[in-house]
Amino acid sequence: MALPPIEIIGAFESTYMPAHDRDVFETTEHDQRWRADLALLEDAGVTRLRYPIRWHRLEAAPGVFDWTETDEVLEHLRASGFRPIVDLVHHTSYPAWLTGGFADPRFGSAYLRYAEAFARRYPWIEEYTLFNEPFSTLFLSGHEAVWPPYLSGMTNFVDLLANVLPAVAEASRLYRRLLPGARHIWTDTCEFHTGSDESGQRYADMANERRFLAIDAFLGRGYDPEGPLGELLEEAGATGSRPSSRAPLTFWGSTTTPTASGTSGTGAARRRPRTRFPLPTRSSSTGSATACRAPSRRPTSAAPPPTGPPGSSTCSSSARSRGTAGSLSTVSAGSPSSTRPTGTRSCSGPTATSTPSGSTGSTRAWSATVR
């Protein structure tokens, strides 16, 4: 029996760097050469692609949208027969006036205003990603102090999840109403951890559970308080016992059924998401499994020492992934080797694409498409 051809999905990197007011569209000149770049994709036979919407440029002032460039590009994609999977927030690509980034108390309402405005303006969109790689993005921003707002530790990580994910879950319900025929493509990292001794394996078990925290919260799945992550979440106040100034990490649930997407990792890294969420898995982004040496000393004091014990493996997806040519590559994010304790090693490569479907309350239905 002949196997069906493998579909190649294109992508363009666009991450915004708030401190520099520049994004990767601009540093690669895709913002000027987008027609030529898209023509190269079309010449290669690629018509389905992930395409980011530059929220940071189209809402330069709160509530004031300039759709000029977005209209031009999306109408070109539509007229040329492309099938875009629009990406509403790609890593730190939020408007600069959200000075607190993902910790800004205005984030949720601003994001929902933008998401609704986009859906009403482009009702023909067939596929969308509401928030790109939420685990890796919020982990690097709230746990590892690698990206703004440069916070560290489990409590700050939980704070960011609680500030961002309720709005993403609400957006999923909104898009179910506004774009009933469209599919939600969930994209996140596919990492895997192993330990070199008993202490390291305990840390690896915790990290292997932690990687699903964002999607489990989004889908309303909850977590096992007796599991390897339970004690850490209890200490971080994720069960509702947090100070009144902080929202508990409630597990919100979503009424959309996302299609699973993510970035590729090792075979073991990909198998676990497919077991947990029995859906088709796509390989996305670029990179390969790489061993990272731990430095003899920390180059900066921006983040506190990692919590992983000596002898543990703390790989975060695609720590040293390498892109392909030009602006057509999407490189997955991971914790740099400078954040790993001595004695650790990286055990997995790039992120993985899987398609989970949404749920309501405690009832979860999983399917490959959203109808």
TrEMBL record:
- Positions of the region Disordered? 236-371
First and last residue of the signal peptide: none
The record's section on InterPro entries has: GH, Glyco_hydro_1, Glycosyl_Hydrolase_39
Residue ranges crossing the lipid bilayer per the database entry: none
Domain of life, source organism: Bacteria
Give one Pfam family. Glyco_hydro_1
Low complexity bias locations = 253-268, 276-301, 310-363
Protein name as catalogued: Glycosyl hydrolase family 1
Q: Which organism is it from?
A: Naasia aerilata
